[in-house]
Design a protein that fits this description.
The complex is a heterodimer. Chain A is of the alpha/beta class. Chain A has 7 helices and 14 strands. The radius of gyration of chain A is 21 Å and the shape is globular. The chains are: A alpha/beta, B alpha/beta.
Chain lengths: 260, 318
Amino acid sequence: MNIVVCVKHVPDAQSDRTFTEDNTTDREGVDGLLSELDEYAVEAALQIVDGDEGSEVTVLTVGPGQAADAVKKALQMGAHKAVHVSDEAIAGSDAPATSLVLAEAIKKIGNPDLVLMGLASTDGTMSVVPAMVAERLGLPQVTQVSTIEVNDGSVSGRRDGDVASETIEASLPAVVSVTDQTNEPRYPSFKGIMAAKKKPVETWSLSDIGVDAGQVGLEASWTKVLSFAARPPREQGEIVTDEGDGGTKLAEFLSAQKFV
Amino acid sequence: MAEVLVLVDHEGGQVKKNTAELLTLARQFGTPSAIFVGSEVEAARPRLAQFGADKVYVVDHSDLSDYLVAPLAEALAAVVEQAKPAAVLLPASPDNNEAAARLAVKTGSGLITNAGAVEGSEGDVTTTQSVFAGSYTVKSQVTTGTPIVTVKPNTVPPKAAQAGATVVPVDFTVSDAAKGAKVTERKPKEKSGRPELTEAAIVVSGGRGTGGDFSPVEGFADTLGAAVGASRAAVDAGWYPHSSQVGQTGKQVSPQLYVACGISGAIQHRAGMQTSKTIIAINKDDEAPIFELVDFGVVGDLFTVLPQADEAVKKGRS
């Protein structure tokens, strides 16, 4: 079985995140890492191929030079090889443009049995790229599932919605996105870290995957950011220590604010 | 005026409040038309008419519930093809965001998800979103194709504006390709009787500090008529269902009042609640980061503070 896991290099959520003059996310000088939610997809892929020597897990990422750090962690966890699509023209791409690059790169990797992704990137958090990639590749989507099971050429998983919990099943190949309820991602072992250094990372440009530079990037994106504003910091309110009357004081606050 | 399509959120023909909100928003950009998926359109029509739907496109097809998302995207594309709308508005939800994603690719249109505000005039749809864990607000526009926007609940107060709600059946067949992902089992969620988390005006949430006993949290929520939420730690421990998780990988809530009980306030949790209007926290640890956000905080044990507050609130009412 061949699995492609799409991962994203994102600014560290703990660091201050800002925008550049062209209203895109500032990625320079910001600590980046493998999107935490993508680790669940990497782990799911590794569990599926575990012990099967004929299988291969390829990690795919799209982004500038430092995005290679994202695939490095996936290789340390145990993925077999990596592809990094990097091209200046991609900068500022929105979700539809990104999904185009991913879909074409997946085709070039060679029509895998399974394309796995995380629930969302921890920066954009739109949760739409898996559905867009599925649409572009003409594949079924088994998305936002909290379990994943592969047998006999099919994949199934549980999708927990507000109204119902559904079991979704599709025959392979399919696009699957997993939530953070799916598994417990492994930490890279020392052996894994050493082995990762020898694993192949291919870097492709847009022309390698047959995408025209005019189809992607800030200019070709279908949405535009007009402005952004930092949310004003909240002024810290009153904090009391409970000395037997904390609940009463809380009720008084609610009453003063007309919540009760 | 061009039509603006609004996907109707309903249960058995009972139209939800978010749909009335979207119909209200849609009037800024053109003439609102509803898209109704299901067989109970007659039950829904009066309310759709009341909030200004000129037409109601009806897509009644069992394949829409038997398969995941792709048939809904095809149905939406069929209506877009027929109506040539100025914009498409959908209530934000995992299914709708994904259907909108496929629709965007199908129609070559820009997509904005989880908008907290939608403003503008015909031909100009501007959205406001909260990004980076609620630390920034961003204004965006769709520049290509038909603007497709998924909208969070409680963006505007619904305003009535009587219209005809003329039923327009949509002739449409689901392609074989869209039947790839089949729903093989569906277990309806148990109804708690409490308001829905994302729509509630008040949310009371419990975290690690509950130690697994949510009864004081639930009791206080019921006194306030609130929804109950949970932190990731409480969900991971199996104390509360994932569908109640507030945070980056759960629900984003923005109520009038948020009460965090025994929640330390990790950035992932803050991402889901820091746009709440008023925030209260109860935590034993006076250094818990949640206290940086609060309008009112109690350093104390939720098991003594909540019941006392509950009783005081009830007494105040009697």
